[in-house]
Amino acid sequence: xxxxxxxxxxxxxxxxxxxxxxxxxxxxxxxxxxxxxxxxxxxxxxxxxxxxxxxxxxxxxxxxxxxxxxxxxxxxxxxxxxxxxxxxxxxxxxxxxxxxxxxxxxxxxxxxxxxxxxxxxxxxxxxxxxxxxxxxxxxxxxxxxxxxxxxxxxxxxxxxxxxxxxxxxxxxxxxxxxxxxxxxxxxxxxxxxxxxxxxxxxxxxxxxxxxxxxxxxxxxxxxxxxxxxxxxxxxxxxxxxxxxxxxxxxxxxxxxxxxxxxxxxxxxxxxxxxxxxxxxxxxxxxxxxxxxxxxxxxxxxxxxxxxxxxxxxxxxxxxxxxxxxxxxxxxxxxxxxxxxxxxxxxxxxxxxxxxxxxxxxxxxxxxxxxxxxxxxxx
Length: 378
Hints:
Elements: H1 2-8, E1 14-16, E2 20-23, E3 34-37, E4 40-43, E5 53-58, E6 63-67, E7 72-80, E8 84-86, E9 90-100, E10 103-104, E11 114-116, E12 121-123, E13 131-132, E14 135-138, E15 143-145, E16 147-148, E17 156-158, E18 166-172, E19 195-198, E20 203-207, E21 215-218, H2 224-227, E22 234-240, E23 245-248, E24 253-256, E25 261-264, E26 273-281, E27 288-289, E28 292-293, E29 306-307, E30 315-319, E31 325-330, E32 355-363, E33 368-376
Parallel strand pairs: 2-4, 3-5, 4-6, 5-7, 6-8, 7-9, 8-10, 9-11, 9-12, 10-13, 11-14, 13-16, 28-33
Antiparallel strand pairs: 1-2, 14-18, 15-17, 17-21, 18-20, 19-26, 21-25, 22-23, 22-26, 24-25, 27-29, 30-31, 30-32, 32-33
């Protein structure tokens, strides 16, 4: 009753319209106090010292939070069948309960977001109850952003931090080549050499000025199986603002399988990258080997080429048809021209004769081994 009395004393400062509760003054929800909003909230006054519950409830119509001053709620319920729209950032200092409907923020304005403050949490999020647009978190705790699009919850996760940084994120169920709210497209054919393929199904906009790792999540709609067979070859990739191309952001850990799981990046500064998504390494479907070699000096197929091999620490061994080693090297660089570096009888020359040979390529850091044949013909 104390909270209700306090609000009643301020009614002369608060305007009521047919569709909105309009605060011009100084409103506070005290400890254990509760307010239920069944119409829009327009906040042009002070509404950021709350300790109780603010609930937004409507079965028939959407609700909107707008105004010039950011409201801050301690606990917050969202039960709006046709969604709660934020036209101004709204802060949560303790907990938010996604009961019915989404919290929707404008995707064309990342500065408006649902802001979780230090130690804040949320419950009951799923594909039909999430933040559709931008959410932010300020604090040192690990945090999973309850974000999604098109009734798909697709969290982005950050680990424990220091220094109380702020990060924000939104998920887009869109092809990066054709983004709906960005002024540029993100050509999935333009990537650094180590990257083979970029995901075409989705991406995240992740913002912040402090270095961090990030964990992306996927489900069967993500088509991870199109990118890789082995999750060791899955990568977090980001569109570099400085270089205007996709860059590898690593895979330091992963969980699950190609239908559902997570992958964690190395550390990077989010604001250095426009968007993030999944990519695959060169060789994710097997290192690409060109089996023919004709080292006759004409500039065509003069060396044994294994596409992408120079990107990995590797060892290469080549055997003749009797199983004898005719060539071996650490960290092969696509420069072998059929000359043996072993003591084998090939007449008076170290040039290997025409014929079929066999190779074994080992990538120890990837825990991968490739084997096959090659043919030398002059």
